[in-house]
What we know:
By secondary structure, the protein is mainly beta. The protein has strands at 3-6, 9-12, 15-20, 26-31, 34-37. The strands form 2 sheets. It has a 3-stranded antiparallel beta sheet with strand order 1-2-5, with no helix packed on it. β3 and β4 (26-31) form a beta hairpin. The two termini are 20 Å apart.
Amino acid sequence: MWFTKDHGSWGIDSFNVEFEDGGGNLWTVTLGDSRWDE
């Protein structure tokens, strides 16, 4: 996961979250890029 600050704007680059449920199934959630201004 990358956090960046560029000319008063913040950003988080996309990343995946992986987890296994109680039934042994593997799940992957992908969160996209996020940008916002101060």
